[in-house]
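Closing statement on the iron/sulfur cluster sub-project.
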Amino acid sequence: MMIDKKDTIVYELCGKTYINLTNSCTNECEFCIRNIKDDVIGKNMWFKYDNIIGDDVIDALNINKENLKDEIIYCGYGEPTLRLSALIKSAKYIKENFKNKKIRLNTNGHGNLVYQTDIVPQLAQYIDSVSISLNAQDEETYNKISKPRIKNAYIGMLDFVKKCKKNGIDTTVTIVTHFKDYAIDVEKCRQIANDLGVKFREREYLNNGY
Ligand code: SF4
């Protein structure tokens, strides 16, 4: 497949619209798609300059406005909350200009640790649902598989889950199964989700990233 070398901010996958905000992340997950390929369905996901601002996203949305799907998902090749102002500005724009679109945030849940403040009330103004990478049943396993570059990442992520739920965001925690021989205990992870009162989704690792 030919890879389009241009920066990709807005792209489409499986009937949904995705937004790529950054290539930065506070984790280095073993199973991250960024380790195995540079593109999603032929779209280059690495930015030449990793400095996307809200207006860049708004421009990209307007270029694609005829083709935007019902659900718009902040995801991409990095952690979207690391570009918080671009995320908030563009999500507000979507809600005000593209009616009836649902917005989902896929995140590692480190946002409050990064900013050392609770960003969830800000997100809750525009984000309908959030998918947070639980990744493991305990901190030790999480640290092995996700290699966080931030202190207290697992505990901070769990607290982020609680705050999303408390702020009325439709909240799901996710795990990736069948990746190498990592000892992911699916039932313990499911129990964590139940105890937190949030949804649970397990996704089998697929090395094409789809
Ligand atoms: S949190 Fe997501 S973007 Fe970051 S390293 Fe893990 S899989 Fe990749």
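The chain is about 30% helix and 20% strand. With this model delivered, the sub-project is considered complete and its resources will be redirected to Aim 3.
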